[in-house]
Design goal:
Arc Repressor Mutant, subunit A, elongated
Length: about 240
């Protein structure tokens, strides 16, 4: 299972991979960034699912098989091709791209597993991820995530933790240990973005919505607390 999380981190600039489990299945869902072209999302999904399928069969001694694959695009002519390639249930025109494995299979030992090779691979991948992230600390990671995707503030700490491959409780604890909190970081991001947005001509109602406030009055109260003036007064001072 760590391999799926490594893959998610490596492709973070292209797509977010969200993991879900129930009593029977382990599912990896691909969530592409906004305005991703149809053909890019489709090609990425087809290639990554093909790779996972081949790895599962080759490395597990044919013990691990895909349970189901969902495709967001609608191409009925591709169903026979997918069925022949993946040998599993196929669904098209779904809300997302996802691949599911039996939960009982997902952590089975690999055929011809090598503990030494596993340790080496883990070390190399984790070092690679550190270089990609530039040794960012958790506070910076949360700050950048909310700056890049402000809509996540509406979803709360749970979605933010999921994007960082942590549980909400772990994220809360680690931020507390670092002397901060999710709420503090969220408010800092709101303050920075609010000042940037007020330099433009967007109505206050729209800015309020973009920053995930319940209404304009809540935004005004928060901004007054941060800057000592209302958003309207601040905007006028920029002229």
């Amino acid at each position: 299972m760590p391999a799926y999380r490594w893959m998610a981190a490596l492709f973070d600039s292209i797509v977010t991979i969200k993991f879900e489990t129930d009593d029977q299945l382990f599912t990896a869902k691909l969530q592409f960034i906004a305005n991703t072209p149809y053909w890019v999302a489709r090609l990425f999904a087809e290639c990554s699912f093909s790779l996972l399928s081949r790895l599962a069969l080759q490395r597990s001694g044919n013990d691990v098989r895909i349970s189901q694959i969902n495709f967001a695009h609608e191409d009925k002519g591709a169903i026979p091709v997918y069925q022949n390639l993946f040998r599993c249930a196929i669904a098209i025109a779904q809300s997302n791209y996802s691949i599911s494995f039996s939960l009982a299979d997902i952590d089975k030992p690999l055929a011809q597993a090598s503990p030494a090779l596993k340790a080496l691979s883990r070390f190399q991948i984790e070092q690679r991820l550190k270089r990609l992230k530039g040794e960012k600390n958790l506070e910076q990671s949360v700050h950048e995530l909310l700056m890049q995707h402000p809509y996540l503030m509406e979803k709360g700490i749970e979605e933010c933790a999921s994007r960082l491959y942590l549980s909400p409780r772990t994220l809360q604890r680690q931020l507390h240990d670092a002397g901060t909190s999710y709420r503090t970081i969220r408010d800092t991001v709101r303050r920075v973005l609010a000042k940037e947005l007020l330099e433009g001509s967007s109505p206050l109602e729209k800015i309020s919505d973009l920053l995930c406030f319940s209404d304009r009055r809540s935004f005004t109260r928060a901004f007054l607390k941060w800057e000592g003036v209302t958003p309207t007064t601040y905007r006028k001072s920029l002229c």
